[in-house]
Amino acid sequence: MTEPTISQLPPLPDDWQRALAVVAHPDDLEYGCAAAIASWTDAGREVSYVLATRGEAGIDTLEPAKCGPLREREQRASAAVVGVSEVRFLDHPDGVVEYGPALRRDIAAEIRRYRPELVITLNHRDTWGGTYWNTPDHLAVGRATLDAAGDAGNRWIFPELIERGLEPWDGVRWVAVAGSSTPTHAVDATAGLERAVASLLEHRTYIEVLTDEDPEAYARGFLTGNAEETGKRFGGRPAVSFELFPR
User: Fold this and answer.
1) DSSP string for 97-159
2) Which residue among 5, 70, 104, 219 is least crowded, i.e. fewest CB within 10 A of its CB?
3) What is the tens place of the pLDDT at every residue in 12-24?
4) What is the DSSP letter of 185?
5) C-alpha separations of 131 from 16, 123, 128, 217 in Å
6) Confidence of residue 130 (pLDDT cuts 50, 70, 90)
7) How far is it, in rounded angstroms, from Cα 195 to Cα 178?
């Protein structure tokens, strides 16, 4: 019997120079797309991170006042592994981020500040596909990022940003959503996969309370498995997938 043909994902456009990744928590990008980010910075592209929270409610055994600074340090170290030096935190409360104008304004401000052509975020839908339920923070930040990409270019939305010296930026060409169950494009993860593993391992405190498995085995197994699965739709090469929304 002939095997069914698997539809292939085209490469993500690469005719851009500056990207801004906006997610809810420390480790969201490391689970989602760090291998792609490593390949982009290798190619001389500029990538910056904005996180809505410091992940302070993420570890049950560690009170938020101690957890937040620790996870911030881990995130900065993690970003450095894949060539990202600029990491900003918006200080929304972890676990109860609210979608609405305040969040849109904060993200639009960062888009105006960094002036990216590509904006990256994480899955904004109710599930990860099937019955794997997503978290409220991911929904709020992902949806607000998609909206803020347009808000950033409209001088009549959040005019107070202009008073802060943040002029409108209508140069966002795409928003790429990592972790989508309905991807449209992919990026070759071959060159960046080892650094993606090392980047995720920087979140060691979080990983050690998440699983009893050896942290390196856990990180390598998770990222390699996902990259190989996506690779079935990318010519057999390990890959990171995105759902791309042109603007």
Assistant:
1) ---SHHHHHHHHHHHHHH--SEEEEE--SSBSSTT-BPPHHHHHHHHHHHHHHHHTT-TTSST
2) 5
3) 999 999 999 999 9
4) E
5) 35, 14, 7, 26
6) confident
7) 18
- pLDDT, average across residues 47-53: 98
Relative to beta strand 118-122, strand 87-89 is: unpaired
Rounded to whole angstroms, the Cα distance separating 183 from 219 reads 22
- Contacts with 125 (C-beta within 8 Å, 6 or more apart), sequence order: 134, 139, 142, 180, 181
What does the alpha-carbon distance between residue 124 and residue 133 come to, in Å, rounded to a whole number? Answer: 11
Distance CA 38, CA 194 (A): 10
Token digits of residue 87: 């990491």
Compute CA 185 distance to the chain's CA centroid, rounded to the nearest angstrom: 15
DSSP code at position 45:
-
CB 164 within 8 A of CB 109: yes
Between CA 201 and CA 220 the distance in angstroms is 9
Residues in Cβ contact with 15 at an 8 Å cutoff, skipping those fewer than 6 apart: none
Residue 238 φ then ψ, to 5°: -55, 140
Query: Would you place residue 5 in the very low, low, confident or very high pLDDT band (cuts 50, 70, 90)?
Result: low
Q: Does residue 2 surpass a pLDDT of 70?
A: no
The structure's pTM equals: 0.95
Share of the chain above pLDDT 90, in %: 96
CA-nearest of 229, 218, 217, 138 to 189 is 229
Percent pLDDT > 70 in the chain is: 98
